[in-house]
Structures are given as structure tokens and as C-alpha cells.
Design a protein that fits this description.
By secondary structure, the protein is α/β, with parallel strands linked by helices. Helix content is 50%, strand content 13%. The chain has 21 helices and 15 strands. The chain has helices at 4-21, 26-54, 69-73, 86-90, 98-112, 129-138, 151-167, 178-188, 204-214, 220-223, 233-245, 288-294, 314-324, 345-356, 415-428, 432-446, 452-475, 482-513, 530-535, 543-546, 558-589; strands at 59-60, 63-64, 193-197, 224-230, 250-254, 272-277, 286-287, 309-310, 325-336, 359-365, 377-383, 393-398, 404-407, 410-412, 525-529. The longest helix is centred in the C-terminal third of the chain and has 32 residues, at 482-513. It is globular, with a radius of gyration of 28 Å. The relative contact order is 0.07.
């Protein structure tokens, strides 16, 4: 498993030191660096597909036939001519003009991909040879060989965020976390047809959709057509690069025409099978008359001020996403948490939406899920093709307290947590067989038919015992060998903890839904009908429906603990005063 945060930091620190030592500005440095990351990732993708092509490659005269561009086209991947391959560039001779070689590599790649024409940076000759050689070395990292995750999106966004003070405008656009993207894709379940992301950024929604489809053995390009709009040209270029290295075809429109507030650039109103997006939240100063003329407003405009501007565009996005759907279409998108309860015209639009019967699922998400922001959000899901027995219902899930802490500032849903939340939706939809399959997946992973609660208890005891054993072993080991012994036990504990974590997730799910029957769970989920929602003032805030789970008694005496904290505070305050007195005396002695 790649520690993506550690990788990002290491790559940035190395690259930024080089920039600081050179004469280039951040703005001059930004796109060339991102282009090199693209080159490295493209090469990893090339090697991955090449290995697949060579598996059963015919031979001639005892030699395996070489691969060519047509072989890669059949795999929906980019063929890299030799001089566009990263290993060629890394091993250039000492007297080579590295900038010119990289420019030529970019030109060769653009010749192989129509959608990359004019997209890749080709200004590398402005950078010194030594700088480029060192950058090529930095990004020659084995982590880029991992093909299952959208690493390019994470690395690109991280670098873009670090460059932001000099080159990026802060208009509310930021990277959509992988777990939120996967949650959206898992719930709307794209299979075939037209997919639109009207605020596509670096294309994470498209990549995750393709992964979902191909996990069922279906070729994404053959079954799906991807359309994107992106106001920021820079982000659109990142998206096109991202799609290309994943072998996906997409039609992306950027710039003024890509501004979704004012343009339906692909003429897709009422035509989409799936809409997915993470739009910028709480955008203001949107021209109301231009929006009115652009259409896609089945419920009318949100509130308009005296300047004929929309002060908060959240419900413009929400209206657009609904309007783009065809008669069976599904939408899933990220939205500011405040939108579930906003008043005025927003409430009127929300009421009209609810009365269509097409609001399907609402999920509340806690803080620290975004890569660069700390704000909470909600995931909204529409389904115009809902089953007849669900048309009067909405599933609310409050997942604010259900997550894995990656570090102090970032939370996410683990693979199993994603599956558990998805399982609640399956049961709400009556898809019991999917739930049953997940329970069997848990049993297979854990390798036991015992009740999950019993397995958690056994694994917890085993983990405690192993920790005690590790402590004794380290204490009894000679000083020069302690590190090795500690590392060996850390590895064993890590493996055991992984199993224990999965067992706990299995227990979490099974104790709530048993063999596969949906029921409302206090503090977690509730299915409400439209009459109940009307009674709540047409709120779509999950917490208003699911209630609050009972808090377990942690055994701490509140009054006693508060007294202890108060005494600790008084003690610290006294120490602070003494320290200030000492500092003042010292400064007086120095004549200050």
C-alpha cells in the first residue's frame, strides 16, 4: 500500500528545492513539472499494457513479435515511441539537450492521441539541463507503477495546491477525495450510456466510473461516452492528460464555453444517463439573466439580488444536475452541507425536487474529507428511474461519525467502509443478493465461519497478547538488535490489525442488518416518505431524520474529571506567571 501523503511530501520537497535553487518562478515551473509527472505515469501505463499484450504474443523465427501502436489502440491505451518513454529520457547522455528531448517526447505523444493535441507542455528548453535531469530522477519513482489508483489526480492536485499562491485562482475548485468519488460511483452504478461531469476538474469521476464498469469485465470506452465541462483551462488540460493515460476517450470543453453556469456546451439537457460532479460551493455574483437564457432550470432561478446576480449558486448546480438527466437517469454529486436546509427560493426548489419523487439517497459527510479543505458536505443522489415502491421514499444516511482517520487533517472511508455504506443502499433498494455476497466476502477474507463478534474478541485478545510478547522480546534483546526485532513484530502487528479492522467492519454491518433485511438504525440511517419530509420543512439533512445514537458510558466521572482539568489549568497558569516574571527580570538585567 502506497503512503500517498508521504510520497507527495517527498516529491514536492525535492522538486521545490530545485526550483528555489534555480532562477525560474513558480508560474514558469508549474506546468513543466506537472508535464513530467504525466510523462512518468504515461510510461508506467505503457509498461503495464505492454506486459499484457506480450502475455500470449506470437513468435517468428524464435523471437517474440514487437508491439506497435495498433496493439495499444486495441487496448484503448497510448503507444509511446521510444523517444517518448521515460526510461529513454532518464538515460540521456551527458551532452544531450534535455529540454529539447522532452519537448520532442511531448510532440510524439500528441501525435498518438487526438485528445492531447495542444494540451501537453512543450516549453522545457527554458529550464536548465541539470534541473531537468534532477526532476526526471525525482519522478522516476516506483509508486507510479501502481495502476489501480488515480495517483496522477492526487499528485497533480497536491502540486497545484502547493503552486497555488503563484499560479492558481481560488474559486472554490479543489480535488475530490477518492473515497467520495467512489461512493458516488458505487451508488449510481454506471453501466452504459452518457456520463457528464459539468465541473470535471482533473477527471476523477470519469476514471472511477471506468474502473467500476471494467470491474464487471465491460470495456468502458465501448459502453460509455464521457463528457466534461471545466471553466479553468488549466484543470481541463489535467483532465485530458488523466483520461489519456487511463486509455479513456472524453470530450472536454473548457474556458468560457466550459462555464456550466452559462453554457450547456455539449447540448445534453435531458439526455444523460449519469451525472456526477463536485462543483465549487457557494459561488456568488452569477449573472441571473444569462443563466435564465441558458435554460436547464426546471424549478426556476434561486434568489436574485438587486444587481441581478445570484448570491449563492448551489441550487443552480442542483437544478442543472437534475435537468441533464434523461427519463431513467441517475445523478450523484457533492454539495455544501448548508444546501440541505437553506431557505428562501432554495427551499422552494428543494420542495419541488422532493415532490418529483426522484430524490433517492442523502448522505451526510463529516469534516476533513477534502484534501485541502476542512468543511463538511453532503452527497446527493437523484434517480429518475426509481422502483415504483421507492418513489415516495428517501434514504437518509448520517455518516459523519463513520470514517477512517488517515492523519490529523484527513479522513476517508476505507474500502470496507465504502462497501458497508453501499450495503445500506442495496438493502433499501431490495437488492439483498448484493448484501449477502458482501457478507460472504467478509467470511472468505477472515477465513472463518464463526460469528463476527466472536472473531473480533479473539483477534483483539491475540493482538493484545502479541503486543505484550513484542514488548518482552524487545526488552530481552541486545541493544544492537532491538530495532530489527521491533520491526519484525511491527509487521506481524500490522498484518493482525488489518484482519482485526476487517472483522470489526463485518461486525458493524452484521449486527445492524443480520442476514439482509433493511431496518432504520438510530443515528445512522432512516427511510422517510415525502409526508415526513414535508413535516420537517422539506429539509434534506440526514441528522433531522436518523436521530442520535445512544452514547456509551465510558466510565469517566464527569465532575471529577472537570475538577482535575480545572486544577491542571490553574497550575499551568501559575507556571506561566512565574515564567513571565523570570523573563522580565532577565530582560531588566540586560537593560531592556
Amino acid at each position: 500500500m502506497i503512503n500517498i501523503r508521504k510520497l507527495e511530501t517527498e516529491l514536492w520537497e525535492a522538486a521545490d528545492i530545485l526550483r528555489a535553487d534555480s532562477k525560474v518562478t513558480s508560474q514558469e515551473y508549474c506546468m513543466p513539472v506537472l508535464g513530467l509527472i504525466f510523462l512518468r505515469y504515461a510510461y508506467s501505463r505503457f509498461k503495464f499494457v505492454e506486459a499484457d499484450i506480450l502475455k500470449n504474443r506470437p513468435t517468428r523465427g524464435g523471437r517474440v513479435l514487437p508491439v506497435d501502436a495498433d496493439d495499444f489502440k486495441s487496448k484503448s491505451a497510448i503507444f509511446l515511441p521510444e523517444k517518448a518513454r521515460y526510461d529513454f529520457l532518464v538515460n540521456l547522455p551527458d551532452d544531450a539537450d534535455v529540454g529539447q528531448a522532452i519537448n520532442y517526447a511531448m510532440e510524439l505523444i500528441e501525435e498518438q492521441s487526438v485528445q492531447l493535441k495542444g494540451v501537453l507542455p512543450k516549453n522545457y528548453t527554458v529550464l536548465q539541463n541539470d534541473l531537468l535531469r534532477e526532476l526526471l530522477r525525482i519522478f522516476n519513482n516506483s509508486a507510479f507503477n501502481e495502476m489501480k489508483d488515480d495517483i496522477i489526480g492526487r499528485i497533480y492536485e497536491y502540486f497545484l495546491n502547493k503552486f497555488a499562491p503563484a499560479v492558481a485562482s481560488d474559486d472554490g475548485v479543489f480535488f475530490t477525495p477518492k473515497s467520495l468519488v467512489r461512493m458516488i460511483v458505487n451508488i449510481i452504478e454506471p453501466s452504459r450510456g452518457t456520463v457528464l461531469d459539468p465541473a470535471c476538474g482533473s477527471g476523477g469521476m470519469f476514471v472511477s466510473s471506468a474502473d467500476f464498469i471494467e470491474s464487471y469485465g465491460v470495456n468502458a470506452n465501448a459502453s460509455m461516452t464521457f463528457f466534461g465541462q471545466e471553466k479553468v483551462d488549466y484543470n481541463a488540460k489535467l483532465c485530458m492528460m488523466n483520461m489519456a493515460v487511463h486509455g479513456l476517450n472524453a470530450k472536454i470543453i473548457s474556458g468560457d464555453e466550459g462555464n456550466s453556469f452559462y453554457h450547456d456546451a455539449h447540448n445534453l439537457d435531458g439526455c444523460c444517463d449519469y451525472v456526477m460532479a463536485n462543483p465549487p460551493f457557494n459561488v456568488d455574483k452569477v449573472k441571473s439573466e444569462t443563466c435564465q437564457n441558458a435554460g436547464r432550470l426546471p424549478f426556476g432561478l434561486p434568489s436574485v439580488n438587486k444587481s441581478k446576480e445570484i448570491g449563492n449558486a448551489n441550487y443552480l448546480w442542483i437544478s442543472y444536475f437534475y435537468s441533464y438527466l434523461n427519463e431513467k437517469g441517475r445523478a450523484g454529486f457533492v454539495m455544501a452541507s448548508s444546501a440541505t436546509d437553506s431557505q428562501g427560493k432554495d427551499k422552494d426548489i428543494r420542495q419541488a425536487l422532493i415532490e418529483t419523487g426522484h430524490v433517492d439517497v442523502m448522505i451526510s459527510v463529516g469534516n476533513n474529507f477534502f484534501y485541502t479543505k476542512t468543511l463538511p458536505c453532503s452527497l446527493w443522489f437523484f434517480d429518475k428511474g426509481k422502483a415504483e415502491n421507492l418513489k415516495d421514499k428517501v434514504l437518509f444516511i448520517d455518516a459523519r461519525n463513520y470514517y477512517t482517520a488517515v492523519d490529523r487533517t484527513l479522513n476517508e472511508w476505507s474500502e470496507w467502509q465504502l462497501k458497508n455504506l453501499n450495503a445500506i443502499v442495496w438493502l433499501y433498494r431490495g437488492e439483498t443478493e448484493k448484501y449477502t455476497k458482501l457478507i460472504e466476502e467478509y467470511r472468505t477474507f477472515l477465513g472463518s465461519g464463526k460469528p463476527f463478534t466472536e472473531q473480533v474478541q479473539e483477534l483483539s485478545e491475540k493482538e493484545k497478547s502479541l503486543r505484550e510478547e513484542a514488548k518482552k522480546a524487545v526488552e530481552a534483546t541486545a541493544k544492537n538488535k532491538k530495532k530489527k526485532v521491533r520491526e519484525e513484530y511491527d509487521e506481524k502487528l500490522s498484518e493482525l490489525n488489518e484482519i482485526l479492522t476487517v472483522a470489526k467492519e463485518a461486525e458493524w454491518l452484521y449486527e445492524k442488518f443480520g442476514d439482509g433485511e433493511y431496518n432504520d438504525v438510530l443515528g445512522l440511517c432512516k427511510v422517510s416518505n415525502r409526508a415526513e419530509i414535508a413535516e420537517k420543512g422539506y429539509s434534506l439533512t440526514a441528522g433531522a431524520y436518523v436521530g442520535v445514537a445512544p452514547v456509551e458510558d465510558d466510565g469517566v466521572n464527569f465532575h471529577k474529571r472537570m475538577t482535575e482539568i480545572h486544577n491542571e489549568l490553574l497550575s499551568l497558569h501559575a507556571e506561566s506567571n512565574e515564567l513571565m516574571d523570570t523573563i522580565s527580570k532577565n530582560m531588566a538585567e540586560m537593560g531592556l
